[in-house]
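Minimal example, chain plus 2-acetamido-2-deoxy-beta-D-glucopyranose.
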Amino acid sequence: MLLPVVNVILFCVYATVCLCRGQGTINLPKSSSVPAVLAFGDSFLDTGNNNYITTLGKANFLPYGKDFMGGKPTGRFSNGKNIADFFGVKEYLPAYLDPSLQVNDLLTGVSFASGGSGYDPLTNNISLAISPLDQLNLFKQYIGNLTTMVGEEAVMNIMNNSVFIVCVSTNDLIISLPARSLQDDVLTYDRMLVNLTLSFVQQLYELGARRIGVFSAPPVGCFPAERTLFGGVLRKCVQKENEASQLYNSMLKEQLPLLGSSLPQSKIAFVDFYNPLISVINNPQQYGLDVIDRGCCGTGLLEVVFLCNRLSPTCLDDSKFFFWDSIHLTEIGCNIFVNQTLPGLVNSLL
Ligand SMILES: *[C@@H]1O[C@H](CO)[C@@H](O)[C@H](O)[C@H]1NC(C)=O
Ligand SMILES: *[C@@H]1O[C@H](CO)[C@@H](O)[C@H](O)[C@H]1NC(C)=O
Ligand SMILES: *[C@@H]1O[C@H](CO)[C@@H](O)[C@H](O)[C@H]1NC(C)=O
Ligand SMILES: *[C@@H]1O[C@H](CO)[C@@H](O)[C@H](O)[C@H]1NC(C)=O
Ligand SMILES: *[C@@H]1O[C@H](CO)[C@@H](O)[C@H](O)[C@H]1NC(C)=O
């Protein structure tokens, strides 16, 4: 009885998707019009912050990073680059907590994201991640430090023109929704998540952010771990979980523009993190992929975070796999997602 519960927690705590970059990447335009990209959220955007905190949600050991700069684990939950890197205006988006950061790194963007993070306080209590609100506190510190270093005018330019990306909700849906035994009242839970999302975005705006892309929930029921645990013998996508994502997404998509219109000078975009992934899962061949129902690490059925480690054999060709571990995307998976998403985002924010 306990084991499945523990498993659920282990697998789900660390929803990091790695949108990583292979050859042929598009990033946001490297121009003065977008000086920096700043990322907030969970393991999909964490580029190493969890290396510096006490949590089981880490990825700073092989085979994580096996294709990153020749085989360097950095805390990205992927074989290579992740989504945050692809969105950046530079090759890699560094983690804010990395003590080796220089002024120029801060000026061109960092990630505040933390694997396991969620809007629901319960999620962070379970995962011990840096909560979104604590990420905002780090952001305040960032603004303060940067102002000391380069002055108010330069910081104002960054605030006015940078792109802020926010990707949270996954851990709430896979950890806290089941833990709160609200399965039968998904609507109430999703409403609460939408409220917390809007409140987060508003606080980010109040700190100075103007161009903000807010990720929807992904199709969590199709993550390999969820298929294994709840998808039956055939390991189908867990419909109930996908429906919880879709309900949150539909309400968020409706509410975000209303919030945006109440915040002067803001451009707030809904970033669809659901349909692009479903499209790949339904037609992998169309994207040059072969395997979408298990990860490359180990058996691919359950391995994630410390269960995906040096002792785990990996698949022969991770460029044919959509998922790297049982929750997170491969670099190529990340690349495919960002390729589908970035043009629309540029259109809405710039
Ligand atoms: C992503 O887009 C770039 C530029 O259009 C292209 O060269 C590359 O092949 C694409 N990569 C993937 C994995 O779709
Ligand atoms: C999270 O933990 C804090 C400190 O232990 C506690 O005060 C709070 O009630 C917890 N919140 C939830 C939702 O469990
Ligand atoms: C940023 O400011 C905080 C205090 O607000 C300080 O502890 C920290 O060392 C500073 N970091 C840098 C890189 O200056
Ligand atoms: C930032 O935007 C505000 C409001 O539009 C404007 O007053 C200010 O001059 C801008 N500052 C910079 C440096 O872009
Ligand atoms: C969400 O916010 C709305 C408007 O502020 C409020 O009426 C509603 O009760 C909130 N719902 C939940 C579940 O927190």
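The two ends are 51 Å apart (CA to CA). Residues 169 and 256 are 15 Å apart (CA to CA).
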